[in-house]
Each structure stands twice: as C-alpha cells, then as structure tokens.
Amino acid sequence: MIRISRRMASGAAVMVACLAAVPLAVSSASAAAPSAGTAGLVGSAGSAVGPNRDDAALRAALQAVVNAGATGAIGLVDDGTDVSAVAVGAARLDPRRPLHVRDEVRVGSITKSVIATITLQLVGEGRLQLGDTVERWLPGMVPNGTAITLRMLLNHTSGIFDYVNDADWHAAVLADPYRYWSPQELVAVGTAHPPAFAPGQGLAYSNTGYILIGLVLEKVTGQPVQNLVLQRVVRPLHLHGTFFATSGRFRGPYAHGYFPPSLTGGGYLDVSSWPPSFAWTAGALVSTAPELARFYQALLSGRLLSPMLLQAMTTTVTSPAFPGYGSGLGIFSLEMPCGTVWGHEGGIPGYLSIAVNDRSGSRSAVVLVPTEPDEAIGGAFAAAVATAACQMVDHDLSRASRSAAASSLATRPLPAGPPASSRLRPVG
Fold it and tell me: Is 420 helix (H, G, I), strand (E, B) or coil?
C-alpha cells in the first residue's frame, strides 16, 4: 500500500483549505417523508436498489470523474419515486478493493449541517438563543465577542478570519498531519488575524465560526460533541455508518482518501488515516451516501427541527458578488438551471463531497469522491453534481451540461491558500 509520509517538504502545499465548502469573502453591508427507495437503501446492508433509466447517465458522469484522475466516485439520486445508486472505481488501490455505495467517507464541511441542527435543537429547548453573543458563552476568547452572535457564526457573517487560510497553520499541518489540534488552538489561529469586516456587515466563509459553535455546544450541554451527534442525529435516524470522528480510524468498510499524482509529483498517496482534529466541528463527520440522503431528507421535511427553527435555518444571506448562492444556518441554497437546491458541500484532505436536496426533503442527490481534487477532477465533479441534481429535480439531463457551467457551484470562488497545481512530495 502506498503510504503518505508523516512529514512533507516545507515548500509543498495541500488543499487543506477544502474544509471551506463555499469560501466567500465579501465586505459589504448586506415536508415530505423520504421515499421508499431511499429508506430501503439506507436500511439493512443487504437491501438493494432496482435499476432505472437514469443509472447509465449517473454512472457515465461518475466514470468521467475517475477518468479525470479520481480513484473512485459514488453517486446517489432519490427523485422521490426511484433511487439510482452507483459506485465506480476503487475504495482502496493496493490491494485493490472496489468502491461500494455504502462505504464510509469523510464528508468535511457537511458536518456543519449537523452541528447547526444540534444548535437549533438547543434553541428550541430554550438553552440557547441565536442572538446570544460569543462573549456570553466563551468570555474573552474572541475579540469583540460582545458584538458577534451565534447566528453570525452559523451563517458566516461574523467576519472572523478563517483559520484554514493561515499560511503558518498550513505548514504545521503538512509538517505533521497526525498532530492533535485542540479547538482552542484553531480559534487562536483565526483570532490572531484582523476580522474581514465588522460583525454582520459582510459574508465570509469561516470554519473558525463553527469551531466556536462546537465549544458553545459543549459548554451548554456538558457533553462532548461526538455524544451530541450520536444522541441527537445518529440514533434518532438509525444511521449506522455516520459518526463524529475523533481519530483517524473508520468503523466500517470505507473509501481510502488519496492525493492524485498531479498533486504529489509521483503516485497516489493515501491520507485517509489523518485524524481530523484540525477540522473538528467544522468538518470531522464520517458518513455514507445513503445516510447523508436520509439526514437531509429528515432535516428538510421537519423531523429534526420545528417549522419555526427550520425556517430560521433556511433564511439565507446573499451577496451580489455571488449570484445564486444563499448562506443559511449550516446549509446553503444554490440556483442551478435545473432548479434551486439545498444542502452543503464538503472537503477534507483526500475527500470531496456534496449533498443537495429539494426544499421539501422529498428528493436528494449525493456525490462523493475519495480523492483530493485537482483542476481536472474538480471540473468532472461539478459536471457529475449537475447530472445528479438534474436527475433529482426533473430528469432533464440535457440541462446538466449547462448546469455544470452556469451553477454557483462551478463559479464560486476557489478556496484560499495554495493553488490546485501545487505538489505534495513525500520525504524521508
């Protein structure tokens, strides 16, 4: 098996900033049940999904991602009546194991939807308010914390610097990806920089905000975040391949995450054992395609939040600089030629993911890629997402190519930090 070195050359760069799902930096004031198909797929390990007319189109789109250099790709589309579930490529390269639809993957910033859900549940119980300030719960931790509310942390309007954009932090992660990072350390990296704007006066994606939310959740409840995820989301929805990771280990069959040769300067490098402490409540979740569909269907159909709280979650902040994109509380809306979808994108070293849905929670599409994206993989991924979204909404796959080019997913700003063409080189 190809293994990644514990240390990288100091000049190498990795897209660790993929933690930021849709990184924005704008400084300007500004209920249906899941379908029977998805329920059957998510249920027992032996359940199966019958073929339908869209499997071939989905498979072709996923195969194009593999042809672009990814080790594998998983796609699931539930249109409310039928389910297409396809996996292509390998879950592990050496020795080779085929990729399966139910394989566990790291889903990065999709974690934010779960964390926001738990936060809103506590709001519904009267234990938190969205207008609570950071200073109230974490006194002295954040400069100007009296002016920053939990709502601002959740919808990325706090102005707090995103720690993943710190060059020294990048270098430290690359120097030892197995190092443990405490949440307080991550917050300190972010607050060492000036804010992007005054609280509430702009829109800038910030993982630091979600680290702070995690600390608030633990203070309010007296429980570790992994227990809250288990008790409030995983168990109620009977999810078996979903958990908040506190180490580099998986719990079931999983897709290994790799850096491709374009980023290593050599072969594929396995980074799936990197412990995600550097992501914590911004991106440490592990899940599967069927279970992500189940989670978002339950969320958007009102099974996890009251109508009032779900309305708060889906009230979005927009910016003229990024038309078609709306930032809610742990969820985004995205306008595509096939229609408006709701969900979240995720990236963490070695993995790229997205889960989108209709507003009622009756239709879902999930695309998972266990490979760090370079330009070619990223372009093929966007096209596969467009195919899956159009299949989910109206089956008009002729619009998928236009969707890939015209959607906010394709035109959003790239993550800050090293360019995709940077190379990782093993040393030692």
Answer: coil
Stated as kind and residue range, the H or E segment containing 97 is strand 96-98
- Where in 154-312 does DSSP place strands (E)? 203-204, 243-244, 258-259, 269-270, 285-287
Q: What is the DSSP string of 241-284?
A: S-EE-SSS--SSSBPPPEE-HHHHSSS-EE-TT--GGGTGGGT-
Helix, strand or coil for residue 188? helix
Distance CA 187, CA 397 (A): 43
E strands in 154-284: 203-204, 243-244, 258-259, 269-270
231: which DSSP letter?
A: I
* Helices vs strands, H then E, count in the chain: 15, 16
Tens digit of pLDDT at every position of the chain (428 positions): 212 222 222 223 333 334 433 333 333 333 334 444 444 443 322 333 444 445 899 999 999 999 999 999 999 999 999 999 999 999 999 999 999 999 999 999 999 999 999 999 999 999 999 999 999 999 999 999 999 999 999 999 999 999 999 999 999 998 999 999 999 999 999 999 999 999 999 999 999 999 999 999 999 999 999 999 999 999 999 999 999 999 999 999 999 999 999 999 999 999 999 999 999 999 999 999 999 999 999 999 999 999 999 999 999 999 887 889 999 999 999 998 889 999 999 999 999 999 999 999 999 999 999 999 999 999 999 999 999 999 998 765 555 555 544 444 544 433 333 333 233 322 22
Q: Is 367 exposed, middle or buried (0-12, 13-18, 19+ CB in 10 A)?
A: buried
* Whole-angstrom distance, CA of residue 259 vs CA of residue 267: 8
**pTM reported for the whole predicted model:** 0.86
| Residue appearing with tokens 């399966």 | 100
Distances (CA, A) of 102 to 83, 134, 164, 225, 344: 14, 38, 30, 24, 19
Domain boundaries, the chain: 17-93+103-411
Is residue 351 within a helix (H) or strand (E), and if so which, with residue range? strand 351-357
The topology under which CATH files domain 17-93+103-411 is: Beta-lactamase (3.40.710)
Amino acid at position 150, single letter: L
Q: Token pair 């991106």 is at which residue?
A: 283
Which residues fall within 8 angstroms of residue 267, CB to CB, at 6 or more apart?
Answer: 2, 261
* Residue 60 structure tokens: 């072709």
